[in-house]
Structure formats: structure tokens, C-alpha cells
Design goal:
Strand order of the largest sheet: 2-1-3
Largest sheet: 3 strands, antiparallel
Structural class: alpha+beta
Shape: globular
Helix content: 10-25%
Distance between the termini: 14 Å
Radius of gyration: 12 Å
Strand content: 15-25%
Number of strands: 3
Number of helices: 2
Order of helices and strands: EEHEH
Length: about 90
């Protein structure tokens, strides 16, 4: 299960405003002025919006990692609870 994104059976869509495309990427980020260094929030992105959303977070110094959705799910499966995304908010 992708923590914070349902039970894995629901459709995951891009976080870009107005976009209804399937998510293909997880953008892991935090705001260092508000969050502890280990805290990670996440946005989902389709292929079309990955660069735009990454740039938005990057220029603010918030972006920590961009990972294919399938890899993120695999990490969570192998790490169990407390793995990637355990402290994330969509």
C-alpha cells in the first residue's frame, strides 16, 4: 500500500490543478521552515506535469526526491510500515 494514498486499488491522479491523468511519479518534499528534516510530504504527478511540479517545489528549496510511482510502491512494500511516505501528506 502506498501510505497516504489509499489501499492501492483506487486510481491515483496527478496533483496538478485541474489534471485528472493517472499519476506516474511521486514528488517527495518538505518545507524546512515548517517541517522537521525527516518529514516528507508528497505530491503525485503525471508525465506531463512532473517537470512543472518539480520546478515549483525546487525553486523554493522544498523538493527532496522524484521517484517513479512503481518504485515508491516497491520501497513501501519492502520497508513495511514506516517506510517511504510514512510521514507524508498528499
Amino acid at each position: 500500500m502506498l501510505h497516504g494514498f489509499g489501499d492501492g486499488h483506487e486510481r491515483l491522479v496527478c496533483s496538478a490543478k485541474g489534471c485528472r491523468e493517472d499519476a506516474a511519479w511521486v514528488l517527495s518534499w518538505n518545507n524546512p521552515k515548517l517541517h522537521t528534516p525527516e518529514r516528507r510530504k508528497t505530491w503525485l504527478a503525471c508525465d506531463e506535469h512532473r517537470e512543472h511540479l518539480s520546478g515549483f517545489l525546487g525553486v523554493r528549496g522544498f523538493l527532496r526526491e522524484v521517484v517513479p510511482l512503481a518504485e515508491w510502491r516497491l520501497r513501501e512494500t519492502t520497508a513495511g510500515e514506516g517506510g517511504p511516505g510514512s510521514a507524508s501528506d498528499r
